[in-house]
């Protein structure tokens, strides 16, 4: 007997998909198309005079030395945050997975930061690390470290990397914990009986089994660092000192909102969009083959 | 996103709660004030609403100055602009360039036979927001930079707390003494580097910031803030920073925190922070900005900051009339005086200033009078009327970034200012 339910209707699948498609169209495709259109325009802030300038905005971007440096900053920033998030979330998930007592409490504590808005997270870290009133900054100064994110570029970069990671670890943690719990106990036990020590069990069984999660999280973290970190930078370093913490998304904000250069800002966001799509496709094309489901 | 939702929600609530009777003309006013100052603004507007029955103003907070301006522009483009909007002073050139998008305030007043005594406005304020004889926007909240100093730190350092430094040479000596005596870890600090240590510094020393009367007489002025006076000042700041007497606390609110937590002996900021500083309960004084004695003509007068209120074009005749009466109400000496004494922003008219002086207000609050002395120090000239430069927010960002690069040793003072002039000129040309 056929156990699957079969629907003959040709319309129902589209109806089921419709809400998702409508939401994507309204909140993603339409604005994206507008951004592409705007990136070819040069206009004053009020839109009183508009001129179609072909690729002038794109040309201007690549003659802007700050843009090139912000690409470099974005790469360092994104890779650091992604790496920190993946490693620490995996360690935390591994630890939590082992304990029995008070699991819920630890879990909740680790998940908490995810509920915090990026701007709030930024303010929190700004206060802790501010040289004038920050407690941690005070401790570091007492320990002889000359901590000064207002003038030292590396310090500023470290500050936004830590603040951004802190917020995102929770997200990674949730997925890692779920995937660790999904690993059949029998597999680990069998390996243990065969004499595999915990390190071998980790590298040869656990890591391959959670690779789909890692793959998924890698993409999600990248998208997070590319698009969602603006609030943190806005509240901690404002892109400074100099331009040392101005990453691509922050530059889009500054050029669009502060400098009212709408065409240039639109062109930058189009490039950003293409860049992330490209990485995602690349990843699905090549890395996914190494992922075992 | 969340905050946006919240903002719309609260504004919707504000509209429904204050829903006026049917025939009343309702004005939407978008602003960028926050915290206690926003409360004072609401008080002022509520007073207006209660004072008559024909009009009703609804104030909607739209975030920071930048966000408010952006929201206003976006709304205008979507043909859903509010009736009134507050725009920070650096956005003035952008608003002026948008001819057709706004109604000049003086035209609005004459068209609607509403009273506004433009001659009564403080010259520095009037000059900033006027084009020729025409007042373009209503100077709702104007401020100017002043020097705050901590009296108890002065005492600890063996300095006279009633004699704040008058010149920069004195200031550097004072700062050195504060630091070396151990009275405080930081001699002096400054908020808003681009606004205070360059724009106002230039006006105060009677040197041009840009050509064509700082942009007042041309739309494409050339930047001139890399002359000897400014470069040597920045070089002095760099030296003081290296020696440890001057501490830089970033572009946000940290300088204020450093001062109110008694880390710094001296601090430069807007009069608008007077309320905050006072709330911290430290023993402080307010003094005029220092100047270099060897610069001829110094001190001249300071220029204003803060924001002004613009009326959008295309609103109905009824609403225009309401806006005119609202502005007329706001310009009354008692209303200005109350706003000044609560928020710390300047009393923008001579009559309101006189009104307070006669009441003996400044005997009890001498700190609030300092900025007025600075603005009226001399009759504003081409170098000190104010700046009218398109792209000024962007230029300020470049200046601040270059200042940081200078302090971190990447650029010399000369190079930092030359580079800012070069990049700034390119922005103005666009």
Automatic annotation (TrEMBL), chain A:
InterPro entries according to UniProt: MetI-like, MetI-like_sf, UgpAE/MalFG_permease
Chief place of localization: membrane
UniProt cross-references to Pfam families, sorted A to Z: BPD_transp_1 (PF00528)
GO CC, alphabetical: plasma membrane
Positions of the ABC transmembrane type-1 domain: 71-283
Stretches that traverse the bilayer: 12-37, 67-92, 104-128, 156-178, 205-227, 266-287
Membrane topology: Multi-pass membrane protein
Keyword set, alphabetical order: Cell inner membrane, Cell membrane, Membrane, Transmembrane, Transmembrane helix, Transport
Signal peptide stretch: none
GO terms under biological process: transmembrane transport
Subunit structure: The complex is composed of two ATP-binding proteins (UgpC), two transmembrane proteins (UgpA and UgpE) and a solute-binding protein (UgpB).
Protein's name in the database: sn-glycerol-3-phosphate transport system permease protein UgpA
Source species of the chain: Silvanigrella aquatica
